């Protein structure tokens, strides 16, 4: 018989995690979640890492769910004092049917006109499609689905065993189709692409093709990281259920390593990039920007700079990657509108901005002359 889930309601003092800047993956600057622990219990879940997890026993992560019962009130109080930017939120594990906190948190984002990024392994998020449509209309909503394999992929059975408590990938794809039909930005976060199970050509092709067939606009790839008790838990599951694979993972992730080797990561990410290009979608999440945002041009420029940094990373040009990344941070931090700065300082003056420099100034100047594809 399966283990019974225990829900523990409590009232935290804060809920909103704030970053200085938006990240370059999901474009979120804020994050807020209503539950700790996840009933989907994926064996690889990074939330079991000690720095994220309050559980001494990693087995409890899927069965001892802490419920932040005052989450919507805390979120409202925090967002009222925060500059508008993307909120990474939503958690549609089975607890959400009982407590409905994700929906109430989305209502707060809708009322205060904050864009949202939702990342899900559950089709339950379709329940809140009405609300996400409203958010999308006035701010912007991106609803992405975590999908790392498909039913037709060679490693499907093993992946299903590893994320056996989560709804099947086909259900997530069907949910993606509903969001696409509603005009909401949607796509796949292929994270973590498990080595030897999800990173072969047949699986990557199927992931991209099925995303396209279900209306997705992007596939964002990410590698597996392994640390402390998350590593012990995952390797324990592999050793018990897939011992041959466990031995290969021990070689791929020797003690002390955290992520995949740069070489392995670039091979996979470049293949995803090629496949996305051939299917006419992107391997990056589009940055949501609220209509009328005074910093819209800066934010679109930052998106372009971050895209270039990613391209440099995939090409193995670490120096170039850092140049673009630092320029992206500098523009994100710039209090003035970049078009005004260009007009005031002139093309050469852009190079005097901290973190920009001559080469990046030339690129920014050319980008401004071309004009963004969209603002
Ligand atoms: S659905 Fe996401 S948060 Fe939940 S266990 Fe799986 S990877 Fe972790």
What is the name of the CATH architecture of the largest domain?
A: Alpha-Beta Barrel
Helix content percent band: 40-55%
User: Helix count?
Assistant: 14
**Quantity of strands, as a count:** 10
Provide the domain count. 2
| Major beta sheet, strand line-up | 2-3-6-7-8-9-10
Mean pLDDT: 95
Describe the overall structure:
The protein has 375 residues and is of the alpha/beta class. It contains 14 helices and ten strands. The strands form two sheets. The protein has a seven-stranded mixed sheet with strand order 2-3-6-7-8-9-10. The chain has a three-stranded mixed sheet with strand order 1-5-4, with no helix packed on it. Helix 1 (71-80) runs parallel beside helix 3, helix 8 runs antiparallel to helix 9 (243-252) and helix 11 runs antiparallel to helix 12. The chain is globular and about 65 Å long. The model has no long low-confidence stretch (mean pLDDT 95). Iron/sulfur cluster binds next to loops.
